[in-house]
Amino acid sequence: xxxxxxxxxxxxxxxxxxxxxxxxxxxxxxxxxxxxxxxxxxxxxxxxxxxxxxxxxxxxxxxxxxxxxxxxxxxxxxxxxxxxxxxxxxxxxxxxxxxxxxxxxxxxxxxxxxxxxxxxxxxxxxxxxxxxxxxxxxxxxxxxxxxxxxxxxxxxxxxxxxxxxxxxxxxxxxxxxxxxxxxxxxxxxxxxxxxxxxxxxxxxxxxxxxxxxxxxxxxxxxxxxxxxxxxxxxxxxxxxxxxxxxxxxxxxxxxxxxxxxxxxxxxxxxxxxxxxxxxxxxxxxxxxxxxxxxxxxxxxxxxxxxxxxxxxxxxxxxxxxxxxxxxxxxxxxxxxxxxxxxxxxxxxxxxxxxxxxxxxxxxxxxxxxxxxxxxxxxxx
Length: 380
Hints:
Largest sheet: 7 strands, mixed
Radius of gyration: 23 Å
Shape: elongated
Structural class: alpha/beta
Number of helices: 12
């Protein structure tokens, strides 16, 4: 290959990478998918999702972008190594985003790329997204448009952690509208929930943030215990799930059962998840009267919460505090379910459903159930 051809190839590959960022920013998923070969792959292990082929990339991307309030991606040139009709390279990424569930943050990442020359020009054969740094500190700014005022008005409606509503401020999460279910509860409402939970027999602690909960969970679980972690965005985002499942400090049950054959070992799986030494999960809502509301599609996680586990720990974001049970049920249907359906569609290709509901009004074995309630929003 002559020098002029290599220069032309590099220019075209660089344009391809720029086109990807533009299509993502413009939410043009059909154009973005067309930048891949017909069998191209987009992998994002940190999400985690994997899309194979143009149609999956288009449809999966649309499901993900439906969760955004706003999203900004900046890409910076990295390496390109050309070898005939194939090439490899890296692109460096900086992103800021806020989701409709209130989560927001900044990250720095790398796309590890494989490119292929096609009759249409250079295309991505594979893009693998690797996050190198993530900062989930709530963003103070807002996207221009109809939602901007809501994000800027009175801080209690900001995504993530709120300093607490003052005496003269309206508590947005008490209004009961679906949009408010992502807003952290005020300090006064958090205190009421903690007091009610303790009165109902739960061990309840109010912690500043997910990092504090992560450290506290390590204190609460004895080394060597058999621990089952419920499927939970709160546990994933906080790092608690990884702490339990990745090391050898505990006997982690979830990784074990995921390797078992559901057809031939179903009864054994059922027993393992129903009665662990410790169950760690989150909930869909906590009422100010001291009840926990848990929704499930399969029901497999409910027995451990209900009493099967010797000890249960629930890590709960501040946005999940609601006034009463009726509001909690609306939060499940109007807020948590749509977000979980979007996640399930992206990961499993099928929607979620509220097939089973568990309400824990009290803990008859004082000390068995611990609620770690955070002052910040996290999870659904």
